[in-house]
Amino acid sequence: MSLSIDPVFHSADAASPRIEDHHGLDRWRELAPKQQPTYLDEAEVERVRSELSSVPPLIFAGEADLLKKRIADASRGEAFLLAGGDCAETFADATADKIRNRVRTVLQMAAVLTYGASMPVVKMGRMAGQFAKPRSSDEETRDGVTLPSYRGDIVNEHAFTPEARAHDPRRLLQAYHVSSSTLNLIRAFTQGGFADLRLVHEWNRGFLANNPNYHRYEQLAKEIDRALKFMDACGVDFEALRSVEFFAAHEALLLEYERALTRIDSRTGKPYDVSGHYLWIGERTRDIDGAHVDFLSRVSNPIGIKLGPNADPDTVLRLAEKLDPEGEPGRLSFITRMGAGVIRDRLPELLRTVAPQLPHVAWVCDPMHGNTITSATGYKTRRFEDVMDEVTGFFESHREAGTVPAGLHVELTGDDVTEVLGGSNEIDEEGLRRRYLTLVDPRLNHDQSLEMAFLVAEQLSAGS
Ligand SMILES: O=C[C@H](O)[C@H](O)COP(=O)(O)O
Ligand SMILES: C=C(OP(=O)(O)O)C(=O)O
Ligand SMILES: [Mn+2]
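# phosphoenolpyruvate complex -> structure
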């Protein structure tokens, strides 16, 4: 990933709705956007909007274009996309250790998947901007007290007090600065030697040595070991494998934030949302005539759309027409999140009806959001076996339809949390109590993430 940020962005017309809006970047304001905060101090919002409109971009438009090329490769089956990270990043967890652990987990998974798929893996973090959460309910009640729901650190604080839960526009600025320092460290890690393939392989050996299911993964691990020794013997330049491309992704939910961080790229004259390389529209905000689809149709980044079990072919085709009228390779990905119980019913129909008309769109599996349950002990959780079953259903459906399974999008952390049931360490309902740290959805822990990578690598190599 290029580190140079060329002076190519004009922010002049990209900031305020009062200035002529050539690109329709403020049209969303007329479309009653869903899931937005309610700010009481409009003057403060205006100050924040104005400041965010003049801060340096977090990414360079050329990087977003490069990612489009990589996603186009994935849509053709010439690469595999791996996106992973927290459901909700927090300001408090933007520490060097936690960022390193997440990047390391994605790199470790990617190394295994690269071998399994015999293809490059496009690495992406739900990181450096994943701070805004859509919620099922506007309010939360505890012991008879009702307060606004937590909507992510960019909106309010998780603590259950009226002050903490108030929507504070200054958090938009804090989110920008935390994203900036997170992305800075990600760039340092991925360009500075931390991503060295030999190092990543050593970490994977360490994971396997301690894994109770070692025998399950032993064969693949030995093959990777031999492949690396073979590369070494052939004189492969491992120095060239010390840095990797790593892209930042988040849900484009808070349109005030995304709008203020949109700039005109002077190379092309087109608007780019420079808050992250890749932006997706969530299941709750993907209405065809809604504000989110309108806004994202006007920026040139690669875009994802979440598709739940109720997504019908006609809606999906209309979304594609609006968001990607030119059928630009890599512009659009469909992130399906159906649920293990229904993916084998719902996905094949979409693949049969939609995929032939949209051959340039990448189909990605989010096996998390359709598989959320509440444990008997009261935790919002997921079963590792359901998550894996959805992944298997995804590969089966694509195999049967003759279409390309282009990637995986998962909620994970690099730490040893106990939020998802199962995996080889057999976290059970009681075990959830030990280290349940997420503020919204349950994440795979480090070991569960790697187990997933080994299991997916098997499916990828079976399909190749
Ligand atoms: O991450 C996804 C959603 O924001 C999350 O699942 C919503 O959770 P809720 O149903 O608890 O509001
Ligand atoms: C909100 C999310 O997902 P979805 O829109 O698919 O529910 C998410 O990815 O955290
Ligand atoms: Mn989530």
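# post-check
The longest helix spans residues 96-117.
The mean pLDDT is 94.
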